[in-house]
Amino acid sequence: MRNQPTSSRLKAWMFAPLLVVACGQEGAGGTPEFVTIPLCAGPDQVLSTNPSGQLICKPLPPGAAALPDCKKYSQSLTSDGSKVFCTNRNNEAQGTRDALDNLEQSEILIKEYQTKINSLGGPSGPAPRAVYCGQYTTVTNGAITDPASGATGIAGAAALCRKAQGCNAATAKMCTVYDMYYSAATGKLPATVSQSWVWMSAWQHNSTSQNPANNGLADNCSGFTYPTGDKFWYGTTVEWKSALTGQKALHFASGPNVVKCSDTKPIACCK
Predict the structure, then answer these.
(1) Torsion angle (degrees, nearest 10) of CA 37, 40, 43, 44
(2) Is pLDDT above 80 for 176?
(3) Residue 159 and residue 261 in one domain
(4) Selection from 194, 196, 192 nearest residue 248 by Cα
(5) H, E, C per residue of the chain
(6) For residue 96, is it within any domain?
(7) Does residue 114 carry a pLDDT above 60?
(8) Does residue 158 surpass a pLDDT of 90?
(9) pLDDT for res 12
(10) Domain end marker among 91, 112, 143
């Protein structure tokens, strides 16, 4: 039983010298006889007895103080006629009471952990990963622009992917290499995917010839804003096709003079 407001000057008539079992449960004291415990309506009532000894709910007098917070499974709220206090419920052995107290603590911890988990991923858990939905088939070089909105680079690629057939008009974007891996691993790819632009930033193949160098711009055509080769940047593409083993595999191409930013490719789109 949890804290409820009650009178700071509780009168003896409010509480018979009775061991009160948990409200809303049936059975008490391990006897073979069962009684129905009335469910008191809200925190302004308390369980007591009438002159004939029947269990009833009585209203609390004006003025409030906190009732003690009894242990959920092993204690009950009772009174000696002048004050209220928690007492052991039934005649369990100490080991049994300890087990019931441990059960209550475990329930409290489970609720706390669930609250923390929900705060990390929401009630339904983490959002699903993006998967392949199709291609924006009009080819573009490494400087991607959406003519309708004027968005460029990554934002331009997302705007174009949202026009691709089979993709979501609100959430589609250029696939990353990791989106393509997840799509292959979960069986979301079609029979083939022709060579298409994907996002990659591996900081590989850097050289002092690049301007600037060592900044993650080399393998994605400077965030897909660069259409030529004078800065020695390049792009990354993906294909889903048969490997030399005869089995389907992801083929990622990248590197100087392998995928030039001046090359024109469709865009691999994920949603």
Answers:
(1) -130
(2) yes
(3) yes
(4) 192
(5) CCCCEECCCCCHHHCCCCCCCCCCCECCCCCCCCCECCCCCCCCEEEEECCCCCEEEEECCCCCEECCCCCCCCEEEEECCCCEEEEECCCCCHHHHHHHHHHHHHHHHHHHHHHHHHHHHCCCCCCCCCCEEEEEEEEECCECECCCCCCEHHHHHHHHHCCCCCCCCCCCEECEHHHHHHHHHCCCCCCCEEEEECECCCCCCCCCCCCCCCCCCHHHHHHHECCCCCCCCECEEEEEEECCCCCEEEEEEECCCCCECCCCEEEEEEC
(6) no
(7) yes
(8) yes
(9) 36
(10) 91
Phi and psi (nearest 5°) for 178? -75, -35
Q: Using the predicted structure, report yes or no on whether residue 245 has a pLDDT greater than 80.
A: yes
Asked if 158 and 150 count as a contact pair (C-beta separation under 8 A), the reply is no
Alpha carbon distance 14, 58 (integer Å)? 7
Sign of CA dihedral 43, 47, 48, 53: positive
**Residue 217 binned pLDDT confidence (cut-offs 50, 70, 90):** confident
- Predicted pLDDT at 23: 41
Domain that holds residue 40: 1-91
| In a domain? residue 37 | yes
**Both 71 and 136 in a single domain?**
no
Lowest mean pLDDT among 9-23, 108-122, 155-169, 236-250: 9-23
Which bin fits 263, alpha (ψ -120 to 50), beta or left (φ > 0)?
A: beta
Query: What is the domain count for the chain?
Result: 2
The answer to whether residues 146 and 237 belong to one domain is yes
Considering only residues 5 and 249, tell me which one the structure prediction assigns the higher pLDDT. Answer: 249
